[in-house]
Recover the amino acids of this structure.
């Protein structure tokens, strides 16, 4: 993805030989090579900044989604609890109606 923007590999930098002139290395060749190294380092810094920005955005998204998951789990637990309470109340109401019916039979007689 980013390799097309990078000119030099660490191995190429290590193995590069400058031609020696009468007074030492050719300054133009060294300058040209150092310009390439600077360009690569600049690109590496840009890549690092972009990746850090992406990491920050993904971390924020992850935290948001985890918060939503916690909220949904709490909502689900609450709904399950309400459902359980409703089913218990229904059973309780049926039991009460049966008891009332039995009490009526006892109070008013079994014939009615």
């Amino acid at each position: 993805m980013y390799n097309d923007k990078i000119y030099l590999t660490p191995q190429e930098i290590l193995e590069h030989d400058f031609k020696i002139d009468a007074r030492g290395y050719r300054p133009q060749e060294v300058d040209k090579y150092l310009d390439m190294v600077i360009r690569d380092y600049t690109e590496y810094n840009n890549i690092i900044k972009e990746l850090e920005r992406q990491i920050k955005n993904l971390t924020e998204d992850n935290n948001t989604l985890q918060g939503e998951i916690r909220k949904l789990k709490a909502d689900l637990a609450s709904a399950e609890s309400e459902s359980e309470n409703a089913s218990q109340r229904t059973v309780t109401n049926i039991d009460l109606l049966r008891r009332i019916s039995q009490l009526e039979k006892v109070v008013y007689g079994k014939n009615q």
The chain has a mean pLDDT of 82. The chain has two helices and two strands.
